[in-house]
């Protein structure tokens, strides 16, 4: 049955509005038209920012209990409409319906955690009398919202990554203007609907849809926007840092995540975890497994098992409950992945399984003998491709794992605590998963990376801290 094509509105300053221009949202699996979405102008983005700024200034003492109430009602709305949220995610993105349901569950938890953390956002007392001559001083610091947050989100987690911007911003008392990815705006608009239904005061949230070239710079550079929170590619992130000026920045910019498998590892667990970590969400995942370094004593066993497990994955219709791997977000991305793999093959890489494209589908691919100078070894593929290489020692594996300009998350499989703690000390990453793949995250933990993987940490509590300013208060007593 053809999907009913909708003409949707964007949320601008608390009001649902059309725009003079629209753009199409299509299902990446079959190019079927799903919706017409407003393509906002620069003037409309300015209106959203200015309304957010006026709203924040007029409600600087927005009570914590009201923020909690709104967030909890959003949770209720999401739970009541979870299948509709999942269907929207699956239609507009690359995710299978099962993966989409998992994302809805996580996004609901993200908003719930935001409600809980709102009541825990506290300052602390300061012992001023630690300095001689300050015995008659007492005080504390308190956290205050920064004001207007500008947020930009990618397509790969079109609901939960939006929840990670809006939930903490509202919990901390900020107003937020969000620009979602143009290929997947419908999930963000559905979440905005939840906030409107929950009674969020007008102006605290705008979801402005359209071209980044048209409205992105306005959001990033406007003086009323006090912080920019961005999740996306490294080049776009670098451009934002150059344009934003003296604003607070939170940047999650991707990775080329390594996994190390030592000789004492549970091979079955390592294989299953790493196959899932490499190919879930068709590899379009910033912490997805891309490089695997396996000790030479178990390399052949591991490789055979990994290839067999990869071959058991079902590639196909993302709305089918049995499908494991769906299409990439568009054919251009599938062609790019294909080109990167063919480039590596021309340099000596060997295909163990996969290596073929069918339209927007690229089959799960395992490569060996990939040159260390190839893009696949050094850059983020953001597709269903994993490289497997033999190593002779943990030191060699760590050196190779660190030898890229990324450091988001990594994994190591070992039952030797000494080896685990050596990896903890030496691996230059924001998170290290022991006996698990790099692709593990809960929404409460601090999340971010080193080097080219970004600036700061997300995770609800840590986002809220970044979205507030500390103000010191000191009383001099008579």
Describe the model.
- With 478 residues, the chain is α/β, with parallel strands linked by helices.
- It has two domains: 6-253 and 454-473, Aldehyde Dehydrogenase, Chain A, domain 1 (3-Layer(aba) Sandwich); 257-442, Aldehyde Dehydrogenase, Chain A, domain 2 (3-Layer(aba) Sandwich), CATH 3.40.309.
- The protein has 15 helices and 25 strands.
- The chain has helices at residues 42-58, 64-80, 82-92, 97-118, 160-171, 186-197, 212-221, 234-244, 267-279, 299-311, 331-346, 375-378, 394-402, 417-426, 460-466; strands at 6-7, 10-12, 15-17, 22-26, 33-38, 124-126, 137-145, 148-152, 175-179, 205-207, 225-231, 248-252, 257-261, 289-295, 350-353, 357-358, 361-362, 365-368, 385-391, 406-407, 409-413, 431-434, 450-451, 454-455, 468-476.
- The strands form seven sheets. It has a seven-stranded mixed sheet, sandwiched between helices. It has a six-stranded mixed sheet with strand order 10-9-8-11-12-24, with helices on both faces. Strands 1-5-4 form a three-stranded mixed sheet, with no helix packed on it.
- Strand 2 and strand 3 form a beta hairpin.
- Helix 2 packs antiparallel against helix 4, helix 4 runs parallel beside helix 5 (160-171) and helix 5 crosses helix 15.
- The longest helix is centred in the N-terminal third of the chain and has 22 residues, at 97-118.
- Part of the sulfo-TAL (or sulfo-SFT) pathway, a D-sulfoquinovose degradation pathway that produces sulfolactate (SL). Catalyzes the oxidation of 3-sulfolactaldehyde (SLA) to sulfolactate (SL).
- Pfam families: Aldedh.
- Keywords: Coiled coil, Oxidoreductase.
């Amino acid at each position: 049955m053809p999907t009913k094509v909708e003409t949707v509105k964007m949320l601008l300053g608390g009001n649902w509005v059309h725009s003079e221009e629209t753009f199409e949202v299509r299902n990446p699996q079959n190019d079927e038209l799903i919706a017409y979405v407003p393509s906002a102008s620069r003037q409309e983005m300015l209106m959203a920012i200015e309304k957010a700024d006026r709203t924040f200034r007029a409600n600087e003492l927005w009570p914590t209990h009201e923020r909690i109430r709104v967030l909890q009602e959003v949770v209720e709305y999401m739970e009541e409409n979870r299948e509709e949220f999942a269907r929207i995610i699956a239609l507009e993105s690359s995710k299978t319906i099962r993966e989409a349901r998992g994302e809805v569950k996580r996004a609901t938890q993200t908003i719930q955690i935001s409600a809980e953390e709102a009541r825990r956002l506290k300052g602390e007392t300061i012992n001023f009398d630690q300095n001689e001559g300050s015995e008659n001083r007492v005080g504390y610091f308190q956290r205050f919202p920064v004001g207007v947050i500008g947020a930009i989100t990618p397509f790969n987690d079109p609901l939960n990554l939006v929840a990670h911007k809006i939930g903490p911003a509202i919990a901390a008392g900020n107003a937020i203007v969000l620009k979602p990815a143009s290929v997947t705006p419908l999930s963000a608009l559905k979440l905005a609907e939840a906030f409107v239904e929950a009674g969020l005061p007008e102006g605290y949230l705008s979801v402005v849809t359209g071209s980044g070239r048209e409205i992105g710079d306005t959001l990033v550079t406007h003086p009323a926007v006090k912080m920019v929170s961005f999740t996306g590619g490294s080049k776009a992130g670098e451009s934002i840092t150059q344009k934003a000026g003296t604003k607070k920045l939170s940047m999650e910019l991707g990775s080329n995540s390594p996994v190390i498998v030592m000789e004492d590892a549970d091979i079955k667990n390592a294989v299953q975890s790493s196959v899932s970590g490499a190919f879930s969400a068709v590899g379009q995942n910033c912490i997805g497994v891309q490089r695997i370094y396996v000790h030479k004593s178990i390399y052949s066993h591991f490789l055979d098992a990994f290839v067999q497990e990869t071959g058991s994955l079902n590639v196909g219709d993302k709305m089918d409950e049995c499908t494991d791997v769906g299409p990439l977000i568009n054919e251009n991305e599938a062609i790019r992945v294909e080109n990167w793999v063919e480039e590596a093959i021309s340099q000596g890489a060997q295909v163990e399984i996969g290596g073929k494209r069918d339209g927007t589908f690229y089959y799960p691919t395992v490569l060996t003998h990939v040159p260390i100078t190839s893009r696949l070894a050094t850059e983020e593929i953001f597709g269903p491709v994993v490289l497997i290489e033999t190593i002779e020692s943990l030191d060699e594996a760590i050196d190779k794992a660190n030898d890229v300009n990324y450091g988001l998350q990594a994994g190591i499989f070992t039952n030797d605590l000494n080896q685990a703690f050596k990896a903890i000390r030496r691996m230059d990453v924001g998170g290290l998963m022991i006996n698990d793949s790099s692709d593990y995250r809960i929404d409460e933990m601090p999340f971010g990376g080193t080097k080219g993987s970004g600036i700061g940490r997300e995770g609800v509590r840590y986002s809220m801290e970044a979205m507030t300013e500390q103000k010191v208060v000191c009383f001099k007593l008579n």
